[in-house]
């Protein structure tokens, strides 16, 4: 059953004060959170809440109590709350929380609304089914597709409408309605996001934003970097374990340090919440797909100060290439503890094992590109074992200062083996050689920040001062060896293949990355201003166990960010921003170690959230430049210089809306005009390879009154050049997805049967780069049966 967030009113006499109060409620920035289904609201005790800004206190109260609580941002702006020790009724708790603010909480059949105490007595709060959007938490479950808040752009729980940067949010309900396992499939409908550039390669999510790859440098979980050592040790994330996925467009080094200029993808874990529904689900489908998963949580004490949640997934499946496994086993427990009204602690852990293999990659040779896999079923594999454990801690010293610290330790072991064609095909027989990459990595990432909320005259400040640190210790053995040839007309996928023994790389790496940052978010009437700066340091050491060619590198950089946005009463919010990024590079030239690439972006845009709606419409224009790109040295053909430059100029349009309780929408269009603006390689003025100019997507989900619902979508990817000189091109393609679901209701309330299909028409498509081609994923169909309560 879907949850709605109604604000019910009946206006008997339309007096001016009453109309003003109603308008305030309808334009509310509310903690619009569904009531917990397990017990009536009256039976829930008031939770403990730390002292602080009233808006934050109300939002936290609503989340912990599991109620709908609506209020106007203008009414609570600049007000503080004395906090709440907990216990007693919700009404008593709200009264204490509001203190001497001059506001009162009115109970309605679907929750509470906060209004000025002196209102016209003729305004009665009775049901009329007027829907209004509320302000939600960026970390708690939200109903539907629309998310009002995000945390990635500011490291605070901030409305997207008030953020001077383009952000896309994929909610857990979007992930569930399309029934996707991989993060790249979940973000495929977001503006400016291109996925699948390497075709079907399930070893990692291939995601680019605004023409720049984010796979290796901008992979974040809960605001902390998921480390990457330069090879194949990349932490895997199952979409079912996530509450949401946030895609922040453009450079973000001020808050996150070393990062792709295109943006970042922040995965937000499911964590304990009274708003979370319990769920168990089983699945079966094409490609021998069998899967079971669960999401269970709740209170461990009567007051709800200690909550738990555990997510588990087991999958035994293949891809349409039957030799490619798609197996996953994971368990992700979490625990939150409200230690006292001012102090909270959340523990997050995960253990995961997965097995798959590399995607087909062949030289262009006619129809073989879409019909043949060059590996061996027994030899080819990617086996990974990973586990992480960490915490999120927060303590409020007073109404002004609060300390937040997030930390995660992780360990990842990877075995990646595959057979590679050597380029020789004789009478349909392909010659191959074996490759093995064996890695292990330990990592620690942390982020410690002081959040200061204060006023200077008419300026309301939220000042972040922080330090983040990351430590990676990894080892890599990269080896090759002989491999058997294979008859492409009668392939034998079970030939003996020896483990590669000729070491090409055997090295140990240690990297330390740290940065201090300062960001001020300022509210001045309807203006929202932001400015930030950061200083980064990167130290890396590599020990070569083969040739003794050890190396040490150190880089540092200072980056800046500025933003301005204006909020109109009608829900329009124009904005402009400037941001910078830097990204360290491996390797060296005649002048020594390569310098980091640097990114700068100018962006203007317009956001529109119709007052009282659960909808966000965004239009943005950007000019993004990456400098220090490696190019040929015109005076030394054996050397490279970093004088290259690449530019992306583009337009993005996006609409995400819960148009009604029955109809959800996610639509986007992106136009990118990429260009190599400086180069010595003869490709100046050309398009960068593998960057489409056009991307478009549309998904609609509609529910009929009697439980039956339908979802359908289309994803268009424009043509791309496959080489630097733009002499070869891969064709554009459109993929269709669809789903049908039925909620049983009545005595089977919470039971849902669904069937989802990806690439419904079984479109065959390829993407070629530098002579190699990758086949896309074929049609898949999955049936699921779930029970939620």
Automatic annotation (TrEMBL):
Cellular localization per UniProt: Cell outer membrane
InterPro entries linked: Beta-barrel_TonB (IPR000531), Beta-barrel_TonB_sf (IPR036942), Plug_dom (IPR012910), Plug_dom_sf (IPR037066), Secretin/TonB_short_N (IPR011662), TonB-dep_rcpt-like (IPR039426), TonB_sidphr_rcpt (IPR010105)
Topology in the lipid bilayer: Multi-pass membrane protein
Recorded superkingdom: Bacteria
Signal peptide: 1-37
Main location per the UniProt record: membrane
Family to which the UniProt record says this protein belongs: Belongs to the TonB-dependent receptor family.
Protein name stated in the entry: Metal-pseudopaline receptor CntO
Organism: Aquipseudomonas ullengensis
